[in-house]
Design a protein that fits this description.
Biased composition (Polar residues): 118-127
CATH topology of the domain at 60-87 and 141-185: GMP Synthetase, Chain A, domain 3
Region (Disordered): 94-127
Largest sheet: 3 strands, mixed
CATH superfamily of the domain at 60-87 and 141-185: ANL, C-terminal domain
Number of helices: 3
Biased composition (Basic and acidic residues): 102-116
Strand order of the largest sheet: 1-6-7
Protein name: Stage III sporulation protein AH
Number of strands: 7
Structural class: alpha+beta
CATH architecture of the domain at 60-87 and 141-185: 2-Layer Sandwich
Organism: Desulfitobacterium hafniense
Distance between the termini: 89 Å
Shape: elongated
Helix content: 25-40%
Order of helices and strands: HHEEEEEEHE
Length: 186
Amino acid sequence: MNLFKDIQPKILIPAVLVVAAVCMLLYSKGGGSAPVVPMNQAVENRDTVEVTRIGTLEKEMEKKLVQNLQQMSGVGSVQVSVTLSSSLRSDYATNGSVTKKTTKESDKSGGTRESTEVTENNQLVMPNGASQPVIVMEERPNVAGVLIIAEGASDPNVRENIHNAVRTLLDISSDKINVQPMGGVL
């Protein structure tokens, strides 16, 4: 039994051309369209940026601590490791506007109905020619812990001075600071 026997060629040829065109569009490589990024890959990219930002902050803090601790009497050579539990938090300036629209309706039987629509519009404040918005406040990241390995840390007084200096510089509790003497080659 031939299914196409009753279909006229005038309809069949355009139908085949349409199907072929749709197939070509579906299987083309996307010409100038923007690439579609899977959701899990977008989350991974954001997490990678956050990890990189935290790592940069940790390195900056470590460098500053090493510079300060090496200036202290009896400390000697120092290695510092800082671990942050959160990243830098920034609040940005916004221009906001709120529009409130109230509508009152009454029907023929004397009943009234009132509806209110509130629209908020917040936009980041961008200085002329700048690519970054205006920052209103930055909150320091939380320090999870600090490890200091110093040549002079075998002396209890030097160890206590290092501990106090780190506690003061980072404004963290004593239990987050570990000071150890530098060991030799085994």
